[in-house]
């Protein structure tokens, strides 16, 4: 009898743990789409240097620099006030804010190498 009771308690315990885990997912009021990951290779240039996007989209840029020249050691988004160092061989991610329609420029720290994110207006 005692054993039966113990087993029942354990079973009950497992059930409540399982249901607690099931509820641990945060209930978001407005489900946001995960940002789109765009890989950019940096090797004396940004490859690709033209990226197409749509208004309201969120991008996560993943940059890997392969060269070690001074020019590409930084990436700058002048209009967003973003400046990031690009250590050679180390992936760097940049989360961009929701994109506005138009052309978003990015460049190296000296403004010599450039790239563009062309953001098409949403219909
Ligand atoms: Cu440069």
UniProtKB/TrEMBL annotation:
Residues 14-119 form the EfeO-type cupredoxin-like domain. PROSITE patterns: PROKAR_LIPOPROTEIN. Keywords: Signal. Residues 1-29 form the signal peptide. The keyword Signal applies. It comes from the Bacteria. The keyword rRNA-binding does not apply. This is EfeO-type cupredoxin-like domain-containing protein. It comes from Sorangium cellulosum (strain So ce56) (Polyangium cellulosum (strain So ce56)).
């Amino acid at each position: 009898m005692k054993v039966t009771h113990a087993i029942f308690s354990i079973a009950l315990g497992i059930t409540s743990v399982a249901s607690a885990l099931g509820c641990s997912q945060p209930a978001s009021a407005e489900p946001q789409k995960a940002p789109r990951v765009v890989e950019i290779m940096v090797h004396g240039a940004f490859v690709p240097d033209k990226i197409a996007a749509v208004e309201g989209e969120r991008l996560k840029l993943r940059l890997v620099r392969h060269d070690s020249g001074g020019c590409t050691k930084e990436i700058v988004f002048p209009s967003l006030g973003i400046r990031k160092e690009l250590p050679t061989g180390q992936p760097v991610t940049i989360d961009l804010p929701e994109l506005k329609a138009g052309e978003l420029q990015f460049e190296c720290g000296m403004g010599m190498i450039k790239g563009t994110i062309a953001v098409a207006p949403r219909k």
